[in-house]
Amino acid sequence: MKVWKVLSLAAAIVFAMTPAMATVINDGANPVAEQDLWQIYNSLGYGPVGADSNLIPQVSPDEVWTLLTSGQFIATVHFAGNTETLGFYQPVGAPSSLTPIFTVLPSDGPVSTLVPAIAGPFGFYLTSTGYNGTQTWYSESALNPGSQDHMIALATGNPDTVLLAWEDLPLFGSGPDPNYDSDYNDLVVTFTRVIPEPTSMVLLGMGIAGVVVRRMRRK
């Protein structure tokens, strides 16, 4: 059985962009069909925050990510508004390689995926398929039409975990589509870095040593 130790994201990731103003979140855009982001945040146990998603602390910068050391990640989907594919891309600034992490449907429950270590700077992308067609958005705002910010990273009060919240529709003022709402609750996923627990490595070493001793005795 594998034992995992969660490392602080503050030690595991370098935010490679300059600080920016917090992105404004529009609550109440579709209150009958879906929860606001602050409601999802509270339901996951990261609150409580008041009835305003803009009270949730945002991690900034959040556009480009770089791993300091090798390791793996656990990505857990908590809410999906459409058919959503989340992945990472490289190189930053001019993505030529899109690597999917998972694809989920709105009917899926919480889904967790182990993500292998990623070498070098990377960004996240989201490909969404729904009533607005199929569109791809990037964590780097400059790669989106009109330099729109489609992904925000939220602090959870736990240094081991960040919450990525996506808007999968064009934002306000971007076109005639009446569905854009800027509520950032279309895909909500936690992202946590993990490595094998050091004690498990010690036990593995002891096991190997035991095999060696037994073989020496036989000889």
List the helices and strands and how they pair.
Elements: E1 4-6, H1 9-12, E2 13-15, H2 37-43, E3 58-59, E4 65-67, E5 72-80, E6 83-90, E7 97-104, E8 111-115, E9 123-130, E10 133-138, E11 151-155, E12 161-166, E13 187-196, H3 198-218
Provide a descriptive summary of the structure in words:
This protein is an alpha+beta fold and 219 residues long. The protein has one domain. It contains 3 helices and 13 strands. It has helices at residues 9-12, 37-43, 198-218; strands at residues 4-6, 13-15, 58-59, 65-67, 72-80, 83-90, 97-104, 111-115, 123-130, 133-138, 151-155, 161-166, 187-196. A hairpin with a 5-residue loop joins strand 11 (151-155) and strand 12. The radius of gyration is 20 Å and the shape is globular.
| Count of individual domains | 1
Mean pLDDT: 78
Low-confidence stretches: 1-20, 199-216
Order of helices and strands: EHEHEEEEEEEEEEEH
Q: N-to-C terminal Cα separation, in Å?
A: 32 Å
User: In percent, how helical is the residue content?
Assistant: 10-25%
- Sheet-strand content, in percent, reads 25-35%
Indicate the radius of gyration in whole angstroms: 20 Å
What is the count of DSSP helices, taking H or I runs of 4+ residues? Answer: 3
Shape: globular
